[in-house]
Design a protein that fits this description.
Elements: H1 2-50, H2 58-61, H3 66-86, E1 101-105, E2 111-114, E3 119-122, E4 127-131, H4 132-140
Antiparallel strand pairs: 1-4, 2-3
Length: 144
């Protein structure tokens, strides 16, 4: 009789430990999946900072799921609207420059221009020290 009780207790312990191991493996798998999803979300967010327009290249787009494509679209549109509200492009220099001024050479005659802190004469072939923020718009238009 006592042997049946101890054998029954051993079976209960085995069932308990089996259920515990199963539960712990489920919790571990859940943690691994959450880390994977979080890592993919970080990669998609970084794509929003590096790609200026909302259209992903086809090679990247085919590797994302439908929900990840929607997430990228919403994230990039929110990022663009935030930068438009600030009237500032936050994705220009991800590493801050050592010097706020840059040396530029004028490629085309522009004339006198009002900058943030001064009026500058942008004559052809002249070399000037301008604030990086002021020069960026002229650089993108290929005047400097």
């Amino acid at each position: 009789m006592q042997e049946e009780g101890s054998n029954n207790q051993t079976n209960k312990n085995a069932d308990h430990f089996g259920a515990l191991v199963h539960h712990l493996s489920l919790v571990r798998n859940k943690r691994c999946l959450m880390a994977y999803v979080y890592n993919r979300a970080e990669v998609i967010q970084n794509l929003g900072w590096t790609i200026k327009h909302a259209d992903l290249p086809a090679a990247v787009k085919e590797k994302l799921s439908i929900s990840e494509n929607e997430y990228f679209g919403k994230h990039s549109s929110n990022l663009q609207s935030y930068m438009l509200d600030l009237n500032l492009d936050l994705a220009i220099d991800m590493v801050p420059p050592k010097d706020p001024y840059i040396k530029v050479r004028v490629l085309e005659e522009i004339g006198e221009v009002l900058l943030s802190d001064q009026i500058a004469n942008l004559a052809m072939h002249s070399i000037l020290f301008l604030k990086r923020v002021d020069a960026e718009s002229f650089i993108s238009q290929v005047f400097l």
